[in-house]
Amino acid sequence: MTVRLAIPALILLAVAAIPFAAPSLQLLMNLALAKGIAVVGVTVLLRAGQVSFGHALFFAIAAYAAAFLSASMPGADLVLVLVVAVAGAAISGVLVGLFVVRYRGIFFGMLNLAFSMIFWSILEKFYHYTGGADGIRLPRPTVFGMALERGPFELIMFYLSLALVILLGWFTVRWFASPSGQLFQTIKTNETRLQYLGVSPQRALLTGYVLSAALCGVGGVIMGIVQGVVTPEFAWWIRSGEMVFIAVLGGAGSVAGAFVGAAIYEIVRTYASAFAGDIWQMLLGGFLLVIVIFAPKGVIGIYDATLARLTGTRANDGETRK
Amino acid sequence: MSEILLEARNLQIRFGGVIAADNVSLTIERGKNMAIIGPNGAGKTTFLNICTGWLKPAKGTVLFEGRDVTSLAPRRIVRLGVARAFQIPQLFTEHTALENLLISVSARERLRHPLQDMHTIRQRGEMLHLLDMVGCADVADRPVVELSEGQRKLIDIAVALALKPKLLLMDEPTSGVASSEKFKIMEILVKALAEAKVTSVFVEHDMGIVSRYADEVAVWAAGNVQMRGSPEEILQHPDVIRDVIGEAV
Amino acid sequence: MNLTIFLLALFDGIAYAALVFSVAVGLTLIFGVMRILNVAHGSLYAVGAYLTVSLTGYILALGFAPVLAFPMMIVSAVLVGVLIGGPIEWLLLRRIYNKPEVLQLLVTFAVFMILEDVQRLVWGTQPYFQASALQAMGMIRVFGVNYTVYQLIILPLVALVLLVGLRFFLRHTILGKLILATTEDREAAQSIGIDADKVFLLTFIVGAALAGLGGALASPTTSILPGMGADMIVLSFAVVATAGLGQIEGAAFTALLIGLGRSFAVYVWPETAVLVPYLIMLIVLLVRPEGLFGSPTARKI
Amino acid sequence: MKKLLLTTAALIAAPLAALAADKPAELKVGVTTFLTGPASVFGVPARDAAEILVEKINADGGIAGVPLKLSFIDEGAGAEALTSEFRRQVESEGAHAMMGAISSGNCQTLAPLAEDLKVLNLMWDCGTQQIFEKNDYKYVFRTQANATPEMLATVLYLLKVKPDFKTIAVVNQDYAWGRDSWQIFSTALKALKPDAEVVGEFFPKFGAADFSTEISRLQAMQPDVILSTSWGGDLDTFIQQAAQRGLMNSSTFVIPLAESSLERLGSTLPAGHIVGARGDHYFLHPERRDDADFKEFMAAFEEKTGAHAIYPVFHMSQALAALEAAYDKAVAAKGGEWPSEDEVIAAFEGLTFQGLGREVTIREDNQGVEAQLLGTSVQTGDYPFATLENIMIFDGAALTTPVGQESVEWVSKLTPDYAASVKVDSYDR
To answer: What pLDDT is attached to residue A319?
Structure first.
């Protein structure tokens, strides 16, 4: 058991050391952590066998909520901005969820896509309210009343993101193992039996849906704050597809996989263009093809398999079977 | 004291040209295990679907403990104390046998704590005992997909029993199982039902099982209840022998 | 909103609807048969457009008449279908039919990302504009507004031919019947000896060729630049999902619905022109999730 | 498309000592431009021009003896990639100065970032006037004009050439530039010609590929004048589709950025339409076309790219000229010593420099004052594309919003006789 815990702990330590060991990676890793949290939201839905093509909607709602709040309340505190943004994402998760949870499979995906594209169109076209295609600036919030310089602020954001990654990752893993998490996951295998246990599948899916919306919201607001600008592109359908892409690349259904996938994605996206011209999309596309066809359990699946072969224990897939 | 648990009154439903329920009326009394027999396509499963709210009848009402449940969704009827086992076991295919039961009891107890591990809930012992009652204690940690058809049938019934229902509706509990195992399963089943003090209704084709385990028998034909009575009366009745048993032999 | 404005909006709507339908029809055919939502359809559309522009430019350089651009469209469509559609199904999709739906979708998404970069590497990033086919057809003047014959007459005609042709192909030719049979029930089709693999390959090639044809038809009306695939594919999702996945005639109706909706929006409240297609999609899906013409799949236990 | 982004070893950036800065091995400057997307027809020529100019500067001994090295960042990759790369070049590559951006949207993002990173940033091409009017910057300068003088000059030219038009419609790109330029243009028009009526406003999305519905609508409205401040691939598409359907015969187009599209439009652009160049930029600039440096550059540019120079090339020449002038001024003020960043920034105060057009001066609010050139399109046959006639060059000083005032507010208070107060030089070709 220690090996299984040692490696993740080592990785977390390495990531925590980045701002000092390799400051040029700090921004990239911070974006990867934010995107990872959002991808955990998508992973939650994958556990119920559902794929949303529009979860960038909540990613963008949180980012824009933070931007509007900071614009209307200059010098708003970081904690307030985060809370309001994530609350915005969660509430919209409930509102959209009430419609969407009645549907499954392709219909669930398409309806989510419709909602996100409507929000994208509003952001893109209603220039005087939403800043249009250029988006809105998200000025640096104050931290406990102190207006910080860029350097210290980004350090705080980095470690805050890391803390959120650990906290939310742990919570999601524990929730998966909890009764309501297990009930949520039965939607994937047998909704009929779920009905015959006296549970409404819609309400079960809604709990998971709101959690996934909130997680995407956390990712969105961190991304918005770290970048200092929020654009309609946050809600574009390709970003929703990207999140599903990363979830499966990392390991469909695995929380750790979401972060691993996000890190790989950001690294390839940033450094591929430096070395190999502008073909980062092709590299990632090719990488995903290999994963989907030869290792459908994703990078985490490969990691688990090799670990199991090394330590001789039976490979289980991800954290649920603690 | 025999008291009416479930009552169906002139249920009517048709699928296209086929009349699946033609003015069906039937009462189920507490403590009396009812067997439903009849040729395939007679409307037996349809009857169970209507009683559990899966299908809405065109006409007629369903009462459970005197309360009209015709228009309720299955989950609402289940909450009142009705549970169901299916002809094809409806199990959570990515979970183990024990987990299927733990999920069922979690639903029953409405456990909402987001961080408590399901394997550590208080009712775990009760579920292990239930597994033992249905004779599947040895496969508790095996994924259900790896179990035999018979075991899966029993787990399906155990999942229903985990809800501590008042009434258990079973659709051909021993079908798809080798005839040698049929009696073993029924033995386990009746013992479990007796211990859980649950009234059961089960659709069955094997007359041997019907005669040994049913307190009452209802004969279905062409979407309606032809006859009803004790196993002895029904099984000797010429029409039954010709229409039902003739087929079965 | 006097009568002329209404009619003008109607004409523009029809022209746009014809274009959107000819792109979406390939997408819905592939889904109808193979239950796969081909995200790469957008790239096939873009490659069809790029190919047409290059081929037309080439034959014009050789001094041929502009009207020869039309056969070039067919050539581009076939090339896209065979050279790109074929390998996608044969090399990639064939390996994952038994895998969960999300993985099949992601394979087409990965192919989409690859093809987006391939376009950029082959054709660069600067916009292309090749409207000789459109100019060859000339203008007609309606209510004081000049319309290109290409957009107002040719495109709707081609869309009709596609609709009727596809219906005829599916209902009255052997290959068409094979495709329909495999759509209905793959195991049953295989049990009577239909080689489902060959049917899937042919369906995907036909679908990809239709996507290429959509791009080829659109090329004279728009400038060809990176990212056009992403915009058109999400609009095709709207058309196809609103009609009901796999419903070809339905897609014609919803393409018209969305085309008219968008063009009336430009006339009435331009800001919402981008919003209208997805609003229509949402309203329809909320009422009938399986789409206007899709059949609800009852769940049997 | 060779990538100039050479990632040197990721040294921790040498802190820029405030006082006696030692002379760097090379002056690193990061330049953002569009290398992909519809705007690449705009950004790529600017990059090619920069390479020629840098070669020339380094041949003449670099800037105050230090060779200049440019690294390009692609604005087409989106705001996310742009900001992280901009920051990476400043922090880990140790760039001494940055030149951000073509798109107004990107300028609004990068200006505060440059201020944060405390790095000199020259806004070499973007036009939105809001940046300096909303807050003041220490590290950010604009080496060219902004939307106000450009739109004012266009209105003045329009009123001189076609004073009696009645109705006007606008088709601008839906982002900062499109919206701001229309706000200033319409306010100026209301002030200088109150009876003009706006009959239609369209804002297709940036990078739109199909204008057929908008064109039908415009044909139905038959406006006398159609304004479009679009540029790059968008403008090319709009003009080509409009010309195809005869819209350019029924309405006069006012296209203040079309100088950059003349060559690409070839014979499509008919005669009689008002063309501007966001400054006095024209490859046949009446006052500069016979100067030695102008001819030499034009020959080198044509040889490298096979095309004629367009206004982003002129803006790039102005930005590099400003950079060189500032460093030379700061070095001279320090008796030959290499100046610190603050000293270079101080040198920008009131700096005058000359690129390929007339001289440009930087005001105390860091805004450049630049002359504006406009003309009417004509197909003379000397070139396979339209050229300009009836050219007028408006002096920049009177057109630029006074320091500290807000543009829209200042423009709204102008009166019809304001036109006479602006110095104009006219040339027939």
So the answer is: 44
Contact in structure between A68 and A193 (CB atoms under 8 Å): no
pLDDT of A318 > 50? The answer is: no
Contact D185, D257 (CB under 8 A): no
**Cβ contact, residue pair A237, C234, below 8 Å:** yes
Place of tokens 């979970």: B95
Q: What is the CATH number of the domain that holds B104?
A: 3.40.50.300
Closest residue of C to B49, CA-based? C301
Rounded to two decimals, the pTM is: 0.86
Report the CATH number at residue C35. Answer: 1.10.3470
- Mapped onto helix, strand or coil, the DSSP state of residue A85 is helix
**Residue A314 near chain B (CB below 8 Å):** no
Q: Does C112 touch chain A (CB under 8 A)?
A: yes
**pLDDT tens by residue, C223-244:** 888 888 888 888 898 898 888 8
Spatial CB neighbours of A285, under 8 Å, sequence gap ≥ 6: C109, C110, C111, C112, C113, C114, C117
CB-CB neighbors (< 8 A) of D205 in chain A: 124-125, 133
Looking at the domain assignment, is residue C295 inside a domain? no
Closest Cα partner for D288 from D345, D336, D340, D355?
Answer: D355
Nearest residue of C to residue B87, measured between CA atoms: C301
Higher pLDDT among residues C183 and C38, named by residue: C38
Given CB atoms, is B90 within the 8 Å cutoff of chain C? yes
Q: B74 and chain C: CB distance < 8 Å anywhere?
A: no
Mean pLDDT, chain A, whole residue set? 89
The CATH superfamily holding the domain D148-277+371-427 is Response regulator (3.40.50.2300)
- Cβ of A122 under 8 Å from any chain C Cβ? yes
B169 within some domain: no
Whether the pLDDT of residue A130 is over 70: the answer is yes
D340 touches chain C (CB under 8 A): no
Inside any domain, residue C293: no
Distance between CA atoms of residues A66 and A68, nearest Å? 6
Domain spans of chain D, in order of start: 27-145+289-362, 148-277+371-427
Select the residue from C126, C233, C260 to test the D interface by mutation, using most D Cβ atoms within 10 A. Answer: C126
| Residue C300 in domain | no
C182: left (phi over 0), alpha (psi -120 to 50) or beta: alpha
pLDDT of amino acid B134: 86
Most C-contacting residue of D47, D210, D213 (CB-CB within 10 A), to test interface: D213
Total count of domains within chain C: 1
Q: Which amino acid is at C212?
A: G
Q: Which residues of B touch A171 (CB under 8 A)?
A: 114-115
Domain span holding position B140: 82-164
Asked whether at least 3 C-beta pairs link A and C within 8 Å, the reply is yes
Percentage of chain A modeled with pLDDT above 70: 95
Contact A285 C111 (CB under 8 A): yes
Confidence of residue A275 (pLDDT cuts 50, 70, 90): low
Chain A positions in Cβ-Cβ contact with residue D4 (cut-off 8 Å) = none
Fold matches, D27-145+289-362 and D148-277+371-427: yes
For B8, what's the count of Cα atoms within 13 Å in the CB-facing half-sphere?
24
Which chain C residue has the Cα nearest residue A120? C275
Q: How close B123 comes to chain C (CA, Å)?
A: 29
Residue B8 forms part of a structural domain: yes
pLDDT band at residue B246 using 50, 70 and 90 as cut-offs: low
Pairing of strands D252-255, D167-171: unpaired
Residue C80 covered by a domain: yes
Look at residue B245 in the predicted model and tell me its pLDDT: 67
* Residue pLDDT, tens place only, D28-47: 999 999 887 667 788 889 99
B183 contacts chain C (CB < 8 A): no
CB pairs under 8 A between A and C: 120
In this structure, how many other beta carbons lie within 10 angstroms of the beta carbon of residue C299? Answer: 9
Segments of chain D with pLDDT less than 70: 1-21, 37-38
Residues B68 and B126 in one domain: no
Assigned domain for B217 exists:
yes
Among residues A128, A112, A97, A138, the alpha carbon closest in space to that of A51 is found at A112
Superfamily of domain D27-145+289-362 in the CATH hierarchy? Response regulator (3.40.50.2300)
